[in-house]
Amino acid sequence: MSGRAPAGAGADADAREPRGPTRPQGAAEGRGGAPLLSVTDLRTWFFTDRGVVRAVDGVSFEVRHGETLGIVGESGCGKTVTSLSVVGLLPRPPARIVKGSSIRFRGEELVGADEARLRSLRGNRVAMIFQEPMSALNPVYPVGDQIAEPLRLHRAMGRARARAEAVRLMGEVGIPDPERRVRDYPHQLSGGMRQRVMIAMALSCKPSLLIADEPTTALDVTIQAQILELLAELRARRGMAVLLITHDLGVVAEVCDRVAVMYAGQLVETGTVRQIFTHPRHPYTKGLLASLPSVDRPGGRLTAIPGTVPNPRRWPAGCRFRERCAWAMSGCEEPQELTALAEAGRAVRCWRATGQS
Amino acid sequence: MADGDVTADDALTAEGGVTVVRRRARALSALLPGLPQIIRGRWGAGSAALLTWVGMLWILLSRDERVGAAVTSDAWDDRLALATLLTGMLTAWLWSWREVGRAHAPKEIGVSQLDLAARAFSKNRTAVAGLIVIVGLYALALVTPLVAPHDPNEQLGLLTHRYLGLSAAHPLGTDQFARDVLSRLLYGARISLAIGFVAVGISVTIGTLIGAVAGYLGGVVDSVLMRFVDMVIAFPRLVLLITIIALFEPTIFLITAVLGLTLWPGTARIVRGEVLSLREREFVQAAVALGYSKRRIILKHLIPNALAPVIVAATLGIGHTIVLEAGLSFLGLGVQPPTPSWGTMVDDGRANLLDAWWLATFPGLAIVFTVLSFNLVGDGLRDALDPRMRT
Hints:
heterodimer; A: alpha/beta; eight-stranded mixed sheet; five-stranded antiparallel sheet; 20% strand; globular; disordered N terminus; B: mainly alpha
């Protein structure tokens, strides 16, 4: 697969039906029929002076109405670039979504859509919250104004109404004393409170999809739990779908319905949380689960996956996990696809796993 | 951060007898606004209010004829002077009255970065002194038509009033054309301060916009704009001015425009650098993710955050521009006689420095003190606006 030229890959994907062979079967089933977000063969590459970095290299997944999909993977696997591609926040240049990629939101193609259309979706239908609450709020405005701004822009609300709605939203995300706090500036709030403000901002226009990129990484553990609980509660109350990007399997277990495990720019395994956690099929997923610390085995050394992620400028042919895999066999250098398993909603990119089933 | 600042009043408001103390302070503030604040230790704001009140009251009472004339006058500077006088007095009085009535616990909700900077600034005594001088100078410049003893260009009698030394009738003497130096100094302040303020206003506006656009959009836009900046920097200002004077009549408006249009590249560079680092911050990403347009992001989210160094540079820049204007006028390239400006006055006095020292000395001192004040305020602002310098 790595031997394919970019143009060839594009043409190849162009010819493909939206529900092509890369899509795990049964993924389109479920609530509401058509998925809210469907990403097909997404390739986001960075064209740098020192070569092409294929940060996201053929990722396909779907987010259905009201569900939470977690994308898990270690640093540098491309999960953040995937989420930024969906909102169109990539630094361009050098990043570019390669031809043939498709991102459909409620059936509408976002790749190549014009900027004004994307702007009217962002913050309105698709919202995003970020990792670092310390720097994600504008230091010169009171938080209330920042929550009210998207409402005034997308919902054309007047100043007073937007302000009242901001107070209500701050209450909804669990900020105590919102009537007073609306006038506070970001530096007056703690990290957890700022993340709540971020969430209030993102949710102000009642988006149907919330993309949360490591929303709790920068917070301490007790606050993390509160924020996750808040997200789960808001999702349930508003029936909104969440795309959660994280490296923390614990977070996934807590809030997600389905999981996509990402490695070296590709998805290696997808399935429900229960499926992935009880019967991981891909060796990488197994490795990730094994490296979780456990209270049941106190004192033992943590298991690490040996080796490092290969260089994204030169992905190895075939299975990209091959060199770190304890089960690697002779056929592993052959190109492989994310292949649906017999079990409903599951797919894995591994010769061994698909051979077994 | 400056919380936990407990003023003396908290003790008073907490105890009984508060009302008596407050009533006395109220009475005092009604008569001499600012005095209760000075007594309580807010000497900066207090003395500013007191000086404004006393000074303007004095003008009102001692120059009653001219104030009366100004009421019916059609001249715009008379009206402006009158408006300054009334708003100045009203502001000082109302501020003091309300300040006395307010509770003095430091604000806890809605404390902006600007509030923090203001708290830090008010602790810097030299900078506050500089600010008072500057505000005083501008106020004086605005009310000059009511205060100045003579018309700046009035020749009081070429035979009797040339080169008169300092006296009660002419506190700063008279010059070779028998004009009152104090009046010329006051009117000159109007020209010099106005040129400094307006030229910097023009350059800051242009520089901020160009710098922010170049920094945020990057790429080709950045390259083109910044090469244009390099070109403007490379353009010799003096040659430009000489050419303009050769071609047109050098009006004050023209000089201001030339200064304003040649000084902005510095601001543009500062803002571009600031924006380059700001645009990597997550709140800018968040703004994009919320669907804000580039225009909105630049104007509403980037520029306000890049303003701290611009404010400092602008303050120092006004001082710099005043010196520049004085230099140009001294060389005969700036404000043309007989219009008084501090630069032309120094030039006028230059030939008679030994016989009539007051001619060049007072405008020279005025330039020095004004620019010094601007520099003190600029340094104070730099310290106050830099979070790392705050304690």
